[in-house]
Amino acid sequence: QWESRPHVLEDSMISARRRRRRSLLIECAIAAACATIVTAGLVILVGSVTDLWLPLDASRYVAEAEWLRNRSDVLPNIHPPVFPIVVFGFDLLTDRWSAVLLAMTLGYTLYLVATYTLIRQRHAPLVAALATLLAAPTPLFAEIMGWGGGSNLMGVAAAVGALAMCERWIRRGSGAVTTGALIGLAIAAHPI
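-> structure tokens emitted (192 positions)
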């Protein structure tokens, strides 16, 4: 039956691949939205318990962003380039202290998305979501946020993302370039 109509089988395989790809994109969008909501909730919770203040590392990020905007002649030269560039991007949109908080929030959100992606390689979406929710409020990240370790957040997010893509590369044979790019990003974010 299929031998007389090979194009029908090929068309059904292509449409099945498209449906899987579309559902994966929807799942990724939902995971990113949930990670953003969880991050915002944790920032609001921490802000209600203590004043949101920016420690020494955060002031260094501001100084690095100032240098990138040609407002300063002195480059602090303390952090690798990724996080100060993200702060600089947010600094173009808002004030400098909010830019640091937004960049740290972005780093934490990317960590949650990378964690979900890593766990999702082997488990169902619900299990991955629950495990990510359990990983979200760990004391390690509260401490990193406390000292203003935005470079650390970006580095950990990129490293966990690299692990997820490496797992994909091993299991499916695709993702080598993404794995390499994320490893490079992790190194450029923080020498972990």
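Residues 111 and 156 are 7 Å apart (CA to CA).
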